[in-house]
Amino acid sequence: GNSVTQMEGPVTLSEEAFLTINCTYTATGYPSLFWYVQYPGEGLQLLLKATKADDKGSNKGFEATYRKETTSFHLEKGSVQVSDSAVYFCAFISGNTGKLIFGQGTTLQVKP
Amino acid sequence: DVKVTQSSRYLVKRTGEKVFLECVQDMDHENMFWYRQDPGLGLRLIYFSYDVKMKEKGDIPEGYSVSREKKERFSLILESASTNQTSMYLCASSTLWVRTGPYQPQHFGDGTRLSIL
């Protein structure tokens, strides 16, 4: 069935380190892929999206490329900041229901 | 920008009360969703709606009902609140995919942290 697998957290990095959060998915058809971010005490914000193979979504220095051949959508950032500390969710929509399938979330802690 | 507004950020209720959580979106979206978020369990879909007066059960509908009398408003109802319904509740909306082509993202409100005592 449909599912998303994210790397387990927490991920702890020093400021200015390189970030990768792995995400792979199992879906039917041609899903749209998303990364959401949740800062402490808040709701989810859309971080970036990609709607077809080889698309690269980007926002606020974060990037992710839709890899159909490996069914992956890994999140990367070249230099993280303390303010990037949050929970990151990989998700997709497949089929005609508009329902989001979420990963479990990965907590990122960035230390000064 | 899409704005999804949940009526309360924090709410405290007592066991057995009937609880209403309200959600309003301002982008004329057809789809609206209610989730709950619990540590270690991620986000779980409670109910969703594709249109006014339409509703579909999600993964965990037991103990909840919903109402969608107007397109912009989607209410979650706890018929008789219990302590195991203490959680963070998130509302979301999205446009119907057939209108826009590729599946478009859901936009979330800030959440309501509900405590049942």
What can you tell me about this protein's structure?
The complex is a heterodimer of chains A (112) and B (117). Helices cover 0% and strands 51% of the residues of chain A. With 112 residues, chain A is mostly beta strands. In chain A, the strands form three sheets. In chain A, strands 2, 5, 6, 10, 11 and 12 form a six-stranded mixed beta sheet that branches. A four-stranded antiparallel beta sheet of chain A has the order 3-9-8-7, with no helix packed on it. A two-stranded antiparallel sheet of chain A has the order 1-4. Chain A is globular, with a radius of gyration of 13 Å. The termini of chain A are far apart. The model of chain B has no long low-confidence stretch (mean pLDDT 92). Chain B is 3% helix and 51% strand. With 117 residues, chain B is mainly beta. In chain B, the strands form two sheets. In chain B, strands 2, 4, 5, 6, 9, 10 and 11 form a seven-stranded mixed beta sheet that branches. Chain B has a four-stranded antiparallel beta sheet with strand order 1-3-8-7, with no helix packed on it. Classes of the chains: A mainly beta (112), B mainly beta (117). Chain A binds chain B through residues 31-32, 34, 36, 42-46, 49, 51-52, 89, 93-94, 96, 98-100, 102-105, and chain B through 6, 31, 33, 42-43, 45, 48, 50, 58, 90, 92, 94, 96-98, 102-111.
